[in-house]
Amino acid sequence: MMGDRTDTSMIGNWWWTIDRYLLAVVGIITAIGMVLIMASSPAMAERLNLNPFYYVHKQAAFLSIGAFLIFIFSVMPITALRRVALIGFLGSIFLLILVHFYGYDVKGAKRWIRIFGTPMQPSEFVKPFFAVAIAWVLARKSMVENFPGFKIATAIYALVVVLIVFQPDFGMTVAISLVWAAQMFLAGLPMLWIGVIIVLGVIGFVGGYLAFPHVADRVNMFLNSSSGDNYQSKKALEAFMDGGFLGRGPGEGVLKNTIPDSHTDFIFAVAGEELGLIVCLAIIVLFCFIVVRGFSRIFRESNLFVVYAAAGLLVEFGMQAIINMGVALSLLPNTGMTLPFISYGGSSTLAISISMGMILAFTRRRYGTIMPARKKMDE
User: Fold this and answer.
1) 215 and 249 Cβ atoms separated by less than 8 Å
2) How many CB atoms lie within 10 A of CB 115?
3) What are the phi and psi torsion angles at 109 (to 5°)?
């Protein structure tokens, strides 16, 4: 009886304290994603001699598990959530180490490992747990005198980056770095050190360009489309132009017949071709709503751990969407990053579901946690 405000059961309490607007928008994005998967994936399945709806069925299964994960994580109290996230972070680090010994190559990068026969990309699961681990360390700094929070957070970041860089996965490294930098900034890292981080970031980008040929190739193709095989990016732009304002109609696009990543990295281009500019703008607005709504909820929070963790997760979610859409629009070099809840993918879908479950948990209404100044103003 979730309609009764007097319901004190776990589910009833969850329903009346959760941000239902955030939950509804996630549901809308997921529905759009399924429409786009149904439109884009049959061509890929047929090229591989699979059932035309092979990827549709698999994505539906991933999203069903993801919905369960969203509920499980969003219903957890903060203390339990922190403990589970820290255990998850340690487990993800262990899997990242295993990848270097037992992983297998996909498109020249060793990012995947089989767990009981099921392919898994551990770096996807590191992202949400990393944000919570860093938040816990930085929150401890404010509670325990002389606790070296910044140093420990930097050491954790360095460990994760080293493990991911050697896969190599430059896009994931950038995403992790942005989350860490945002949380360090919120925790009050002096502006001098923020400047140092920016300089080191530029040095790291240049180092990645010089050290990894595939990074150099992607950057060169982005800067000069005639310098290499830029076929997918060109086709994506053509798809947006062909779609116009209203699109060609669901299932009527031709992009999915020409590039292999139309159901993953370039699914936003499928949306542009088949659903048009208006729907693409609506998708962008929905992603912006989640990020802005999430930050507006945590601005009232007095628990620093909750603030740092939710901020890190929201930055991760928003930047992943920006990077994927930027790649599809040829505004950024190709990174292989998925569009949350829309692109096909098991590890990415489950990992982003964990992130969203924790965002919903951190933004739940918890009485007695409003900042005194804001509380007084509300009165």
Assistant:
1) no
2) 10
3) -125, 140
CA distances 184 to 154, 180, 294, 310, Å, are 9, 6, 19, 13
CB 247 within 8 A of CB 274: yes
**SS3 category, 343:** coil
The interaxial angle of helices 170-186 and 191-211, nearest 10 deg, is: 180
Structure tokens at 196: 């140092």
pLDDT digits (tens, 9 = 90+) for 89-130: 999 999 999 888 887 776 666 777 887 777 888 889 999 999
| DSSP annotation of 311 | H
Q: Helix 78-102 vs helix 149-165: angle between axes, to the nearest 10 degrees?
A: 40
Instruction: Evaluate the CA torsion angle 326, 328, 331, 334 in order and state its sign.
Output: positive
Please check whether residue 3 lies inside any domain of the structure.
no
pLDDT tens track for 338-355: 899 999 888 899 999 999
Helices (H), the chain: 10-17, 20-47, 54-75, 78-102, 122-143, 149-165, 170-186, 191-211, 213-223, 231-243, 267-274, 276-298, 304-328, 346-362, 372-378
The DSSP annotation for 133-188 comes to HHHHHHHHHHHSTT--HHHHHHHHHHHHHHHHHTTT-HHHHHHHHHHHHHHHHHTT
Q: What is the pLDDT of residue 4?
A: 58
Q: Which of 35, 23, 15 is nearest to 344 (CA)?
A: 35
Q: Say if 4 falls within a structural domain.
A: no
Residue 318, token pair as written in the block: 């928003």
What's the predicted TM-score (pTM) here? 0.88
Neighbours of 296 (CB within 10 A): 11
> Directed axis angle between helix 304-328 and helix 231-243, to 10°?
90
- Is residue 370 in some structural domain? no
Stretch (H or E) spanning 118: strand 118-120
What is the Cβ-side half-sphere exposure of residue 368, based on CA atoms within 13 angstroms? 0
Please count the structural domains in the chain: 1
Which structural domain range is residue 184 located in? 18-364
